[in-house]
Amino acid sequence: MSLEGKTSQTAVVCHGGVDLRTETREIPQPKDGEVQIQVAVTGLCGSDLHYYLHGANGIFKIREPLVLGHEAGGIISAVGPNVNADLGLKVGDKVAMEVGVSCKSCKNCRKGRYNLCKNMRFASSAKTFPHLDGTLREVMTWPAELVYKIPEGLDLALAALAEPLSVVLHAWRRANLQPGARVLIIGTGAVGLLACALARASGSTTVVAVDIEQGKLDFAQEQQWATGTFCLPKGPRVSGLEALEAAEKSWAALKASDAVQSVLGLEDGFDAVFECTGVESCMQMAPMAAAIGTKVLYVGMGTKVLSLPCGPSLLSEVDLIGVFRYANTYPDALALLASGKLGNVQAMASHYYTLENAEQAFNDLRRGKDDNGKTVIKPMVGNLALVGK
Ligand SMILES: [Zn+2]
Ligand SMILES: [Zn+2]
User: Fold this and answer.
1) What CATH number is given for 8-149+350-387 in this structure?
2) Where does the record place the Enoyl reductase (ER) domain (predicted)?
3) How many Å lie between the centroid of ligand 2 and the Cα of residue 104?
4) pLDDT of 311-353, one tens digit each?
5) Which one of the ligands is nearest to 189 CA?
6) 111 alpha carbon, closest ligand
7) In the chain, where are the structural domains located?
8) How confident is the model at residue 58 (pLDDT cuts 50, 70, 90)?
């Protein structure tokens, strides 16, 4: 599967809302400190889907054609000049790529909190201009220090999960929980599901998952990642005080459910709530579901302005903690994926597509189901021969 003689490659390029094109691009050669990688798979996530559907992710609108994708694994096909030998990277290595390129010199970078770097350029995001192309292509070059060899025995397709798992690991570190913690996970997309898996692996005795899709909750229970689940009724998207009312109703229903009632002491709330949807009423429900003196981790993005009841935070000292991407997580995320401690994470990679079929992958992700009605957890798109699919 060498690149010998190959001069051009296929890339999946977003030109605007529902305008995805498969284009032919030149194969990039690695510059100083870079490696060239044959991309094997890219896991699609919610932000990719927003760009596909609207040509924008929240306030970040694409201003030039952009290659999507940022959860990826591949195989090194060339090593550029002056790559630090300590990294031990060589042609043929299976790797995962961390796609945020920070400046390394600002205050936050120097503190090691490079996820907060104001100069961060993140592949497949339109936040900065010119944009930085993502991983939905056959070949890319990338700074070697952001490329991690995957542990022996780890399925290359699962290397892509190191990205969403990094988000979860970062949130988990910020939560600073003890074994035995009772946690609530709101939203069971890929991040929420991995949060359930990590909570169980870290000794949480109670992991309650909520979502509006029963199929995803069933998946969480089948994998034994959730100890209890609750399917919230689907309501219209509301905002402000209307959303707050919906949040109060949701918490009342969840509190009265078997998932909560069957666990002694849980009526007072959870030791930590991981909000993984970014939906207004869910963000409002999160502090209501947190016990006195505990915390809420805001992992999902999507609501800019929020009416929050101050009671839980002020009078009950519930800490509201923001979580933005991740820093210093990749080696640990890969080790966790390889360890088997998370259970059957292979099941997360529910569907595989070629680059040419990327649009189908986006549509299946949008519907949450494939043509046969099977629940789509994480669509993987790429060079399927490289991952044996
Ligand atoms: Zn993502
Ligand atoms: Zn910086």
Assistant:
1) 3.90.180.10
2) 17-377
3) 5
4) 777 889 999 999 999 999 999 999 999 999 999 999 999 999 9
5) 1
6) 2
7) 8-149+350-387, 165-322
8) confident
